[in-house]
Amino acid sequence: MLTPGPDHPISIEPGKTRWRAFFAGHVIADTDDALILKEADFPQAVYFPRDSVATEYMSRTDKTTQCPYKGEAGWFTILMDGQFAENAARSYEDPYEPAARLRDRIAFETDQIEVYPVDDAAVNPHHHTDRGELPHDRREALVDQDRVGGEDVGDVIRHTDSGSGASQREHWEPNVRGPDGGLR
Fold first, then answer.
1. Residue-by-residue DSSP string for the chain
2. What's the pLDDT at 101?
């Protein structure tokens, strides 16, 4: 095991945005908990938590690679909708200490799998900041969204059932003829 240093720097930082992986017309990984690995002169790698990856389309291969800084990586092939990406994902299941944060995470080979950042607020309308509250502009948009023509949505829309089992609105007058000719 080698230790990262000035001649071979390694940093592992939380992703600042949501990340997705896309293959064969499907999002196969989606997380707001990505880790970004920056190592020496290599392109950055995005590591997804294993539970955010569609692993049901992946199978372990015989390939393993050894990194003197991170440890042994196991590799996976992806088969989805008849499309095949051989050895397209890797995982350090028992990483060395400098890469311990990569345990239980999967990274994709970007020449086979498209990996890209996503604006979380654009795909998740209930996006919250790290402090647990909505950003000011989202909060105003949701307040406006809950109003119709100056009235509160609850005053305009009545739900079929308030939870008591009774309708919140009066029933409409019958306006449809049934098979027997009577109004319903």
1. ----BTTB-EEEEE-SSEEEEEETTEEEEEES--EEEEETTSPPEEEEEGGGB-GGGEEEEEEEEEETTTEEEEEEEEEETTEEEEEEEEE-SS--GGGGGGTTEEEE-TTTSEEEEE-HHHH-TT---TTSS--HHHHHHHHHHTEETTEEHHHH---S--SSSS-SSPPPPP-SB-TTS-B-
2. 96
Here the tokens at position 115 are: 């990996």
pLDDT of residue 125: 62
48 C-beta neighbours (distance < 10 Å), count: 25
* Residues in Cβ contact with 91 at an 8 Å cutoff, skipping those fewer than 6 apart: 50, 73, 74, 76, 102, 104, 105, 106, 107
Pull the structure tokens for residue 87: 């050895």
Specify the amino acid at residue 36.
Answer: I
Residue 182 is predicted with a pLDDT of 72
Q: Residue 126's pLDDT is what?
A: 62
pLDDT score at 143 = 46
- Position 148 scores a pLDDT of 46
Which of the residues in the chain have pLDDT under 50?
Answer: 130-131, 134, 136-148, 153, 156
